[in-house]
């Protein structure tokens, strides 16, 4: 199917980049990978010695260095993760470098809920994605490049992280606002990465593409927790969605955008009010990727380790 022979991955030392690279090496051994990063010394030695990989030292602000790494590639996957400046200005610089090197497709650093349902300012962490989407659409309209956005809801691992405020697996406590029946979209890091690798290898893949591992409510998460671990959980209702909105807004206004205190509440609110749920799914587009459902995911951890499962 694929005519893609060279793929660039920017932010090559990051978690998502490593997972995408591993998937490409396993399933597409004829594809050459250009890894762009600030510190090549941080790249795993096994990757540095792999004949399918060439690493380029390139800071996100160095257009000339970026162009050297992008030259000859058919698609660029951006795996940046960092400050607002990096996620907006850094991606714009990378997109411009892609255009200068005639790279036809750009996969944005999204892996997110469907941020198209948000306005600027609704969820500060998603604002960069909206800015990059607008920039790509401007360049697409001029016929310069085609944007790709892989959406997967939340990462399943993050759904169990303490900061999100939904599940405390060690203590067996689940908390929710609303009815507790509102659904969360979720996909594991590895499955989102494997799906992205297939998207990158498919020259026809453009626009918004959705992949989903599972869709579960807080109550359903608690039920699966009991089924898998044999521990009866405590379930706490903290208020209505309106209460959640008021609380998260007050915390944000008090502590400011640099604080993490509000982040979990923002994710809870915007994922459960229906504004950012994934639409039509594209799982069947790449049947080689079989995303894990939540029960299968939980069976890979103990109740004491699942909350730390995003770390590897």
UniProtKB/TrEMBL annotation:
Pfam families: NmrA. It comes from the Eukaryota. The keyword Cell division does not apply. Residues 6-265 form the NmrA-like domain. SUPFAM superfamilies: NAD(P)-binding Rossmann-fold domains (SSF51735). GO terms for molecular function: oxidoreductase activity. Keywords: NADP, Oxidoreductase. InterPro entries: NAD(P)-bd_dom_sf (IPR036291), NmrA-like (IPR008030), NmrA/Isoflavone_reductase-like (IPR051609). This is NAD(P)-binding protein. It comes from Hyaloscypha variabilis (strain UAMH 11265 / GT02V1 / F).
